[in-house]
Amino acid sequence: MLIYIEKKAKDYEVTKKILSNFSNNQILWIDHYKNIFDKKIGNQILTPAIIIAKEENPNLLPVPNNYWYPGKSFFFRTSLNCVFDCEYCYLKGNFKTKYPVIFVNYEDIKNEITNKINEIRNEGYNNQITLYASNYSDIQWLDSLSWFNENFIPFIEQFENVLMESRTKSANIDSILSINKWIPFNNTEISFSLNPKEIISKYEKGTSPLETRIKAINTLLDKNYKVGLRFLPLLPVNNYEKIYSDFLEKLKWEINIEKIHSIFIASLIYNQWDFKTMQKKNPNSTLWDFVKQHENWLIKIPDDIFENFSKIFKQAFPKKEIYYDFV
Ligand code: SF4
């Protein structure tokens, strides 16, 4: 494997760990990750590679209004990109290459998180602060390279009423379990993004099979970890009402839903710029049949269809609060 390393990322602990785990690799020293990451490569077949870099701007970004959990919430990023191949994934529209980038200056990122939490608490806000960690990559898939879990899950435990969400389509939970020798933590929710099998095989190529994700969910629930279920994007494929109703019945049969910490649902949704880029990259995708432009310039599934989805989920999980992305 090829490893691109920014010269300024050389002396970080995570860099050393990554390098010690790979022998016979070709290392290429670079000045800035964007010199590789932002290069238009087209359809060439690429040598497998990762990029190790320093995040020079580790700011937390506020989430859009009405984004999932109520209260103050932020995105932060420790890596970019994902090896899975979800046809709808906006990362593909935004990123020019598929190479994962790992930002190794974890202490800088942790300092930003601490400062932000202190700032908010000093303003007198005592409700839940949510930190979304996985909007730029699937960090659970990447964990064997990035040591995200080992670094960030114990760190987040020190804060009161703070929840970090790590969302994944991977069934890779070994490092989660090993952090605290199978003792669950309070401040991190591992949320699994799920869709019916028909949709996974058509639109979510390379992601862990549904059965292995269910197995991972049950392993974590058995040990009382905080586990969330995410149904996003909802896709109104032919016969979607029956497909999703049957799928939710299966989940209720195989998972103890009472123990699930939270459930989120969301439409397939783009802003117009992302949508144009995605369409340009994959003009023949059948996904574009599912969406239409709304008055607010967002491109998403029609409201009446989303309402139908909402009913299906409420009927399936009458005792659970279902969180929406109300954009
Ligand atoms: S798993 Fe998530 S981040 Fe990865 S390709 Fe699919 S949607 Fe994108």
How would you characterize the overall build of this protein?
The chain is an alpha/beta fold and 327 residues long. The protein has twelve helices and 18 strands. The chain has an eight-stranded mixed sheet with strand order 4-5-9-10-11-13-14-18, covered by helices on one side. It has a five-stranded mixed sheet with strand order 2-1-3-8-6. Strands 15-17-16 form a three-stranded antiparallel sheet. Strand 10 (162-168), helix 7 and strand 11 form a beta-alpha-beta unit. Helix 10 (240-254) packs parallel to helix 12. The radius of gyration is 20 Å and the shape is globular. The model has no long low-confidence stretch (mean pLDDT 93). The structure holds iron/sulfur cluster. Iron/sulfur cluster is lined by residues 82, 84, 86, 89, 91, 138, 169, 207.
Question: What layout of secondary structure does this protein have?
Answer:
Elements: E1 2-6, H1 13-21, E2 26-30, H2 34-37, E3 49-53, E4 61-62, E5 72-75, E6 79-80, E7 85-86, H3 90-94, E8 101-103, H4 106-122, E9 129-132, H5 139-146, H6 148-156, E10 162-168, H7 174-179, E11 188-193, H8 197-203, E12 204-205, H9 210-222, E13 227-234, H10 240-254, E14 262-267, E15 269-271, H11 272-281, E16 292-293, E17 298-300, H12 303-316, E18 322-324
Parallel strand pairs: 1-2, 1-3, 3-8, 5-9, 9-10, 10-11, 11-13, 13-14, 14-18
Antiparallel strand pairs: 4-5, 6-8, 7-12, 15-17, 16-17
Iron/sulfur cluster binds at residues 82, 84, 86, 89, 91, 138, 169, 207.
List keywords for this structure.
327 residues; alpha/beta; pyruvate-formate lyase- activating enzyme; eight-stranded mixed β-sheet; 12 helices; 18 strands; 22% strand; binds iron/sulfur cluster
